[in-house]
Amino acid sequence: MLDVWDLSLRYFHWLLHHVNTRDVGELLATSVLLTGLGTSLKAFASETNAPLAVMEKKEDIARKSVSSGSGEVTQSTSNTIYEHQKFEPNGWKKTAMVYALKYGGDYMGSLLKLLNKEAGEYLRKHSFEIGDALDRFTTQIEARLVDFMISQLGFPQWIARNIAWAIMFLIA
Amino acid sequence: MDKAIADELSRLRYHIKLMQHMVKSDEHMFFMSIIDYDINETQVKAIQNVMSAFSYRLKESTDKHFEQFHEDSKNDPDSILFQFGVDPKELYLDQAPSMEEFSKYVEKILPGSISPRYLLMGMKNQSIHTELCEYLLA
Description:
- By secondary structure, chain A is mainly alpha-helical.
- Chain A has helices at 4-18, 24-35, 38-48, 91-103, 106-112, 117-136, 141-151, 157-171, and strands at residues 53-54, 57-59, 65-68, 71-74, 80-82, 86-87.
- Chain A has a two-stranded antiparallel ribbon. A two-stranded antiparallel ribbon of chain A has the order 2-5.
- Chain B has seven helices and no strands.
- Chain B starts with a helix and ends with a helix.
- The model of chain B has no long low-confidence stretch (mean pLDDT 90).
- Chain A binds chain B through residues 55, 64, 68-70, 75-76, 78, 80-85, 139-140, 142-143, 146-148, 150-151, 156-158, 161-162, 165, and chain B through 1-3, 5-7, 9-10, 13, 20-21, 24-26, 29, 32-33, 36-38, 40-43, 112-115, 117-118, 121.
């Protein structure tokens, strides 16, 4: 597992590549915030080890049962089981997005470029809350973001869906 | 799973996701949430059983057939609710249903998944047990 300083350094490098010089103050503030978040970084470290896109290959599994709506399905005997490709949110990208949503920056600009004007307005108005929610969600992130934006923030469904899609587009 | 099947499944899931952006999602909020959260048909039916019982509890009925239907549902030994650790008898309390009670069953049927509020908003949006949804959301 990567240690906290290693991760801080990686995040700092990422910021240097993505933040303009005029945003140096913001960069420093973010870095200070980051170094103060010891416990969060442990979780961050474990997420960083997660692969971006996985075509899982499990060896030596002869049979596997999968529960489904209509009962249990037993798969055919095989030495190799492939699971469908999953794009999981990458740890450091997700962390960067959380900060961008909460405190602004160029990454937020990248997100806004993926949205139309109306969706962008909704995002600007509630970006802190969305960033906070994104920080909390660790599974089914896209679905939970849509859920949160509709049920808690009162967004129209298509706007919530577009914003969640754009966020996932950048972090997964 | 065979690699070709895994690839095909991946493609199908991705294409379904794209189609969600093509249709007027505001008109199908409940169905969209089912796809988003990868909820299966048994889980949806179990939730509908809960809604049906709650709806029955919410208002007085004078229809004997309707009463019998719920009496049978209550004592159904093959109820799908047993799969989720819920005895259908539990659903027929002699009091008006509440959001807390609904949330308890949602957690049993869809653990760690959709928020009960969003689920109710989706059903209300598609006119499924509208009156009950409004009552629980109030």
